[in-house]
Amino acid sequence: MKLCRVLGPVVATAKHKSYAGRKLLAVQPLDEHGASMGSSFLAVDDVQAGPGDVVLVMQEGNGVRQLLQMGSQVPIRSLIVGIVDRVTVSA
Amino acid sequence: MNLGRVIGTVVATQKYEGLQGKKFLVVQPLDHALRSAGEPIVAVDTVRAGPGELIYFVNSREAALALDPFFVPVDAAIVGIVDDIAAEAAPLTAGVFIGEPIGGGGAR
User: A-contacting residues of B 23-52, CB under 8 Å?
Assistant: First the structure.
């Protein structure tokens, strides 16, 4: 998974049916110290994350399909699976 | 998934039969601040996106799963047309990273 910061919501009415009723958020990948790292991308929220939250994002379709339990034809690849309270790194 | 801007169309008459009748668009990947985020790609359109529209697309196998039947050779599919995106990137929640870098690591 990736550590990311939630930047804010993305609103779309015309979309594939699998995205209906699901919150889509722009997220910024972070390094282990919370600094931005690489380009932001989009992830479907499954844990009621909000802007500024640090979240865990899974980017693998099979895992997403198993979690969302919506059958096999789900074109979603990034899913927020956790809201992070604390990150402590030794180095 | 990633944001993108539709910057063109691709017409190909000679192609894999499963792709007949599908529309192909040239997409410039973007980040949340609508800055270029990689090389333009060609994506199959599943939501009737038009030229210049802000969209989002999905890559790899999930792109094929956006189509019906889905056993077709595509690895990028436009699956939404964006109406609105949060203008201001929310700051990092304080206290999560022990020993945060100076400035809390705001998005560029």
Answer: 31-33, 37-38, 46-48
- Closest-approach residue (CA) in chain B for A29: B107
B31 and A39 within 8 Å at the Cβ level: the answer is yes
B104, pLDDT greater than 90 = no
How far A46 CA sits from the closest chain B CA (Å)?
Answer: 15
Question: What residues of B are in contact with residue A63 (Cβ under 8 Å)?
Answer: none
- Please state the three-class secondary structure of chain B as a single string: CEEEEEEEEECCCCCCHHHCCCEEEEEEEECCCCCECCCCEEEEECCCCCCCCEEEEEEHHHHHCCCCCCCCCCCEEEEEECCEECCCCCCCCCCCECCCCHHHHCCC
pLDDT of residue B47: 97
Question: What's the mean per-residue pLDDT of chain A?
Answer: 95
pTM over 0.80: yes
Q: Which residues of chain A have pLDDT under 70?
A: 91
